[in-house]
Amino acid sequence: MRAEAQLCALGTMSPGLLRDVYITGTGAFLPGEPVGVEVMEDFIGRIGRRSSAVGRRALRWNGVETRHYALTPEGRPLHSNASMTAEATKAALEDAGLSVGDLGHLATATTQGDYIVPGHASAVHAELGAGPIEIASYQSVCASALMAAKGAWLQVRAGEAEVAAAAAGEFSSRWFRPEFYEGTSLVDAKGRARVEADFLRFTLSDGAGAVVMEPKPRPDGLSLKIDWIDLTSLAGRFDPCMWAGSTFADRADMKSAWSHAGPVAAHASGSIALVQDFELLKIVIRAWIGVWLEKVDQGRIVPDEVDHLLCHYSARSLREEIVSVLNSTAAMIPEEKWFSNLPTVGNIGAASIWVMLDAFMKSGRAKRGEKVLLIVPESGRAMVGFMMCEVV
Amino acid sequence: MADGSRIEQRGDDQVADTLRKLAVVFADFEQRLEATPLIRKLTRGRFELADYQLFLINLRQQVKDGALWMSRAASNVGEAHLELRSTLMRHAVTEHRDFRLLEADFVCSGGEVEVIRSAPKNVGSEALSAWMFHEASKPDPFGLLGAMFIIEGLGSIKAAPWGRLVKERLNLPDEAVRFLLYHGENDAEHMREFEEMLRMVLPDAAVAERIVMTAKVTARLYALQIEEIAA
User: Fold this and answer.
1) pLDDT at A6 over 60
2) In chain B, N or C: fewer CB atoms in 10 Å?
3) Rg (CA), chain A
């Protein structure tokens, strides 16, 4: 009591004033029809008109059977990133029994928005057609979904908003069209694309997902009470692992970034396309596992108490690599508790976790009182996020 | 019977707990190494032959000491843990000539053997070596299992990828990179053997704690050794 009074005297908010926050609605938007493995390359196109040398291997490695693209096979866009994100937000609001007019705070996440400037939240807000609201744009890679979620959660928790949405969208496929690679140093004299660039073309999908947060559970059906959201960035120790905006060789030197080189030179040097360093990825995976093991060690996560695990991962093979370490350190959550829709929708970057959560909530698996753990690792520059919820 | 299985369960739990804490220490260690000037140069493609030779020179002094502190540790393991003593002695025998391999790599890369043999330890190597011999001189120095986890983990996880990068960047033959390349073998085997060693000394809360603390100190001093290599 005295400690609390002191906190108030110092102008710090008493813990009693913070509200519990619930996810009262989830929504997903997947563009077009499901696209099968055998025709995926028709949608993203063929660099120098030749089939990719790594495409099939990448798809096998990723364990993806179908995915969605917001492009026609001719490369014509069916949607924008903003319009897909807005559709997912509307779906989540509708799921919560609310409408666009109820929204007070919109937090968006994406890897690459439709514009360079202004932020994705402005574009999504415009697509929603909502009146004046508060917005926040979070930009990174997959983990930006949880950055936005943490922002939205704290808004509601602190009493700054009654209805907040955390929404994420990706339109990666347009960045994988041949024109992003042709005529750049990412393609050799024989017209073959560098594997670090080409592999990603078969790794990412399009789509959007969203969750709605309120300070009370929904009157009917199941809500998810958010216990906590933790994000750990290890960027201080690593060079970029997955990036766009610099060449491979100079990625750690900010002065060499595309913004200094100018758009024409940057394109020629291969600085515009998205690339990934696979050697560094192996090290970053161990760093993610390290953060996970530390959370288990500190008791923040008790594996036995988790009923459902929704872990975002880009490739089935990565999951298999991780399982043996977790088993030997008593930090494994049994595989029967894992829920994933990776085989049918692929890796949708920041949108993945909400598309997965939406499928999970609609699968009928969630039961009151169960704990649901969401994990979103991001290779970008080594980050990992966790969100613990309870079904209520 | 019931008691026996309970003790076994407690042992398994503590082995898993200790392995988890050690894995956390190793993750932090690996990140510190990645951020050292020398390894940054290697991963950023700015590594030169002089860097590689400095790397070998600075590793050699500590590698030479490795089998020596392990022998000393073995000689301080009491009668109650003879199997662990045997394992440590076998390890020491396997590794006590490894520094010769480093010297051969150095010579093959164009260096003079006298240079690598006469080089002093750097600040980190001095601290690391002093720490290891100090710990190894204690009775039943089980904490050193933590040091082995760090140093062997480095050998089985980091050495081979570094070796491949060195070979590729400097266009060197295998014969000049054997120490790094050959260490990556038998990772799974090392891990199994390490678990067995842990089972020889656990469950014991104080020992488990000492193993983790020894791993932490060893990791910090090892990283200091790499940091000290002027790149």
Assistant:
1) no
2) N
3) 21
